[in-house]
TrEMBL record:
It comes from Sesamum latifolium. CDD domains: HFD_NFYB (cd22907). InterPro entries: CBFA_NFYB_domain (IPR003958), Histone-fold (IPR009072), Transc_fact_NFYB/HAP3 (IPR027113), Transcrpt_fac_NFYB/HAP3_CS (IPR003956). Residues 49-113 form the Transcription factor CBF/NF-Y/archaeal histone domain. SUPFAM superfamilies: Histone-fold. PANTHER family: CCAAT-BINDING TRANSCRIPTION FACTOR-RELATED, NUCLEAR TRANSCRIPTION FACTOR Y SUBUNIT B-5. It holds the Pfam family CBFD_NFYB_HMF. One of its GO terms (cellular component) is CCAAT-binding factor complex. One of its GO terms (molecular function) is DNA-binding transcription activator activity, RNA polymerase II-specific. The lineage of its organism: Eukaryota, Viridiplantae, Streptophyta, Embryophyta, Tracheophyta. This is Nuclear transcription factor Y subunit B-5.
């Protein structure tokens, strides 16, 4: 990723003691050498980007089955979504920092999306988060019940696990759904 902050010559960046990475944030580095840079806490490119296989799989879900996605398209999308996630997470993190909290939660991400102008996405994500929390609450309640009182009274624990009773129910996250009044 190219940034417009700091010296234009990469070698002069090393002299200043800063290396620029995602979101134009500067991370202090030692000028001793490449081996020491990797251990000084820099974010490697592979760590700041989503795995390209996952990005490609998500892209293919919306396309017709016989459609092909070029490597360049996957890499471009990988950069974009990784930057977007960093952007939204940074906004949510700033809010937490101002409130002297150390943990960013789903509500903070929804707030950040709304604050950055992604209101439709924020509303959809809030609805999803509410449904998810309800399902998690039901799941926890079912796990705390005696074995005979849970859903599947005549099933053994092995049968329930095979059916996926211990995994959260699948959600349909559709941004195109109409808003509820």
């Amino acid at each position: 990723m190219v940034d417009n902050i700091g010296p234009k010559n990469p070698s002069s960046r090393k002299e200043t003691g800063f290396k620029y990475c995602c979101n134009n944030y500067a991370a202090a580095v030692s000028t001793a050498g490449a081996d020491q840079e990797e251990t000084s806490g820099l974010i490697k490119e592979q760590d700041r980007l989503l795995p390209i296989a996952n990005v490609g799989r998500i892209m293919k879900q919306i396309l017709p089955p016989n459609a092909k996605v070029s490597k360049e398209a996957k890499e471009t999308m990988q950069e974009c979504v990784s930057e977007f996630i960093s952007f939204v997470t940074g906004e949510a993190s700033d809010k937490c920092h101002k409130e002297k909290r150390k943990t960013v939660n789903g509500d903070d991400v929804c707030w950040a999306l709304g604050n950055l102008g992604f209101d439709d996405y924020a509303e959809s994500l809030k609805r999803y988060l509410i449904k998810y929390r309800e399902a998690e609450g039901e799941r926890a309640a079912n796990q705390n019940k005696p074995a005979g009182a849970a859903a599947g009274e005549n099933q053994t624990t092995e049968e329930r696990q095979r059916r996926g009773a211990n995994s959260p129910p699948p959600f349909s996250f559709n941004l195109m759904e109409k808003r509820r009044a």
